[in-house]
Design goal:
One of its GO terms (biological process) is DNA replication. This protein is α+β, with helices and mostly antiparallel strands and about 60 residues long. Helices cover about 10% and strands about 10% of the residues. The protein has one helix and two strands, in the order ββα.
Length: about 60
């Protein structure tokens, strides 16, 4: 068995007809659901979420 090394382009460009929607899932009440199945209000809440960033978090009294 021999390995063949092929070059992979740094960027991949898709034509519009090759694209498809990306389905986003999120954890709700202990289980995962697609955001597309949410009602309008829940989709709005999802868009307004603020995500925790460990790198930007500082613990009070912790010296770096």
């Amino acid at each position: 068995m021999s390995a063949t090394i092929t070059e992979i382009p740094e960027t991949v460009a898709l034509r519009d007809e090759e694209r498809q929607p990306c389905e986003v899932w999120t954890r709700v009440m202990g289980y995962h659901r697609p955001v597309s199945s949410f009602n309008r209000g829940k989709q709005g809440e999802f868009r307004e979420r603020v995500y925790f960033d460990l790198e930007r978090c500082q613990v009070a009294g912790h010296a770096d």
